[in-house]
Amino acid sequence: MTEAAEIEKKMYLPEIVAFHRQDVERRKAEADFAALELAASAHEPRGFARALREKAKTGPAVIAEIKKASPSKGLIRENLDPTALAIELEAAGAAVLSVLTDEPYFQGSLGNLRAARAACKLPLLRKDFMVDPFQVLEARANGADAILLIVAALNDIELRTLREEARRYGLDVLCEVHDAEEVERARALDCECVGVNTRDLKTFHVSLDRAIELSQSLPADVIRVAESGITGREDVQRMRAAGFGAFLIGESLMRAERPGEALKALLS
Ligand SMILES: O=P(O)(O)OC[C@@H](O)[C@@H](O)c1c[nH]c2ccccc12
């Protein structure tokens, strides 16, 4: 079997989502809801979409992602220090940050989210597989300003429920799509940001061209985010010319010895 066929057979997304559906039940059973609500109301959301929109007026708005590992790439950055990274990426000109909080597949944590929040003033995206409204409360309680909704992972009722919950908690939504049908399903949700993932989460195949094609059909009034596989200034410039205002960049920053310098080079 070819490597691509091997990966395709594994179908990571359904496996990851199934894990989170179970895990969230366990966490809910153990949760102190009063304490979470208190922590959530103590966090004043920093305005994720607003920061992206502002930055996109004058140049590429980068969502710099703090990510230690991934199912497709394995370990990306050993000894990942969310505090140092948040400081460095803020100084280098990131518009906002994305922090992986999935533990088993991306080696992230809610602790990393809290550390990033304490270390910088940038708005933060909780990057995880949201399947239950409980995770929205958890997101705000741990300092997130936005959540990710992956259209491929959820049915329309779940999407609507999670979107409403985000609104209730004052969090913005980055809605992730990767084909025309998903764009249509996303339209009804009226999210602040729509991200086209150039990486198909079922096969891990990356295609910037396909994302560029899809950018034409995105709703006009949203912040258009190009996600994944962006490695250089040329990629950013090409995607920007195609109508993307914001860029979600993880691996190419996390592999750099000095992620701040790598970000500055991307923005130069
Ligand atoms: O590391 P990259 O190729 O620059 O990609 C970042 C981001 O787009 C990617 O991590 C991502 C996009 N959608 C996701 C959903 C879940 C977890 C991770 C992701």
TrEMBL record:
It catalyses: 1-(2-carboxyphenylamino)-1-deoxy-D-ribulose 5-phosphate + H(+) = (1S,2R)-1-C-(indol-3-yl)glycerol 3-phosphate + CO2 + H2O. Transmembrane segments: none annotated. CDD domains: IGPS. Pfam families: IGPS (PF00218). Its EC number is 4.1.1.48. SUPFAM superfamilies: Ribulose-phoshate binding barrel (SSF51366). The keyword Transcription does not apply. Keywords: Amino-acid biosynthesis, Aromatic amino acid biosynthesis, Decarboxylase, Lyase, Tryptophan biosynthesis. The keyword Lyase applies. Residues 13-266 form the Indole-3-glycerol phosphate synthase domain. Pathway: Amino-acid biosynthesis; L-tryptophan biosynthesis; L-tryptophan from chorismate: step 4/5. It is an enzyme of class 4 (lyase). PANTHER family: INDOLE-3-GLYCEROL-PHOSPHATE SYNTHASE, TRYPTOPHAN BIOSYNTHESIS PROTEIN. Belongs to the TrpC family. This is Indole-3-glycerol phosphate synthase. It comes from Granulicella cerasi.
